[in-house]
Design goal:
163 residues; alpha+beta; 9-stranded antiparallel beta sheet; globular; Pnp Oxidase, Chain A
């Protein structure tokens, strides 16, 4: 991924805090839910959820996921967002402590409220690892988008912006 595009995507992820996660239900139908996320530094995303949720059960059955993250906008020319496809996994062991620390640094209110902190003691931490990204930025031009795929640990351009 070009450094300027990577920086643009990372800056966008830092500005936002909520994603829409799509998973496959037991009958193959798509299901979606909104979640807070914390970015890991390599475009992977942490989120927390109760183990009995529909999306947690779906991920346990099929780890393939799709995600959208977008800024609120009222005009077509202001639309900016990220679409991604990847896999999602439960984070366990030493990795869980690192993920939890990153998540709570992004959302310190989780630990500041005693009742919320007790409730969050029961959650599981998940990590979404993307293998395909599409960046949409109509502020640059209507329909402006870029796509990348992860090949052997390197982001490669699939669709470059038109000049």
């Amino acid at each position: 991924m070009a450094d300027d595009a990577f920086a643009q995507v990372r800056a966008f992820l830092a500005e936002q805090n909520t994603l829409t996660l799509a998973t496959l239900g037991p009958d193959g139908d798509p299901q979606a839910t909104d979640l807070y996320y914390a970015e890991t530094g390599d475009l992977s995303l942490y989120f927390v959820s109760v183990p009995g949720s529909r999306h947690a059960a779906n991920i346990a059955r099929c780890p393939r996921v799709a995600v959208t993250i977008h800024a609120d906008s009222n005009l077509w020319r202001d639309i900016r967002g990220l679409q991604l496809e990847g896999v999602c996994a439960l984070v366990t062991g030493a990795g869980r402590a690192k993920a939890w620390a990153r998540y709570t640094s992004q959302f310190p209110f989780v630990l500041a409220d005693a009742a919320l902190s007790r409730a969050f003691a029961k959650v599981s931490v998940y990590c979404i690892t993307p293998h395909w990204l599409r960046w949409i930025d109509n502020t640059t031009g209507l329909g402006h988008n870029q796509e990348w795929t992860l090949v052997n640990g390197e982001w490669q351009t699939l669709v470059a912006p038109e000049s």
